[in-house]
Amino acid sequence: MFLPTALIFDMDGLMLDSEPLYHEAWRTAAQALGYQLDDDLYLSLVGRSSAEADRAFRHKFGHDFPVATFNQRWEACWQALLEKRGVRLQPGLLSLLDWVEQLQLPKAVGTSSNSAEAERCLRLAGIRDRFSIVVTVDQVAAGKPAPDIFLAAAHRLGVSPNACLVLEDSNAGVQAAGMAGMSVVMVPDLQVPTPASQAIAAQILPSLHEVLAWLQSL
Question: What does pTM read for this prediction?
Answer without folding.
Answer: 0.93
